[in-house]
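Quick log. Single chain, no ligands specified.
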Amino acid sequence: MNLLDLNLTGKVVIVTGAARGIGRAIALEFAREGANVIVNDILEESSSVAGEIEKMGVKSLFVKADVSKEQEVINMFSRAVDAFSRVDVLVNNAGIIRDALIHKISLEDWEAVIE
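-> predicted structure:
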């Protein structure tokens, strides 16, 4: 028995930034709960996460897209709907980090992190 026991069987979930770290863990947990998962990242290694998910007995789709680019997001959702007819859950996990002390970060870098 899974500790969460959310029973998400058949739900369709998009997880952005799912190549590794927290995003990967989120995608795998949704799959454990029975959800079909669209794995998104700008890194090709996300395709291996989709493979792991399919081994759990649910469907998965890898979509390479940069979520800071509107047209790529539109294309990602189109592919998701084409494959699964709908999207039930969106996890906006993707993000960027600019490694600097807060008082030394440039305005341009700060805006990139926030956007």
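The mean pLDDT is 88.
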